[in-house]
Structures are given as C-alpha cells and as structure tokens.
Amino acid sequence: MALSISLVLLLGIIVVILVRTGYQRILPGIAVLLFGFFLANTGVAPTITGAVSSVAGWIGSL
Fold first, then answer.
1. What is the C-alpha to C-alpha distance for residues 61 and 56, in angstroms, rounded to an integer?
2. Of 2, 4, 13, whose CA–CA distance to 45 is shortest?
3. Which of 9, 24, 28, 48 meets the CB 3.0–4.6 Å disulfide criterion with 18?
4. The pTM is what?
C-alpha cells in the first residue's frame, strides 16, 4: 500500500511538472488518465501491479 501511494505521488508530481512546462497538454493528459483508470478495471491490472511491485523490489534491493 505504501508503495502505491508513493508511486502515485511521484507520478502526480511528474505530471504537474510536465503540464507546467508545456511538454504535456491537458486534453491528451485526460485521455491518458482515463485510459489508466479503465485499464485498472480490466483483467490485466493484477499483472501490471505485480510487474511494478517486482521492479520496485528489484530497485529496493540495489
């Protein structure tokens, strides 16, 4: 749980920086947000969560 909250916080900070610097526009950002939201409701969500957790565990072991 702590990993997902910190990952969401980190990604949120990155998105805010990208929007403020002009590298990311609002409408494509909303489209990507909705894609992620609906992707989380599919059957592939546990696979993605497992992959992110294993990569985070690998980085943590370095």
1. 9
2. 4
3. 24
4. 0.59
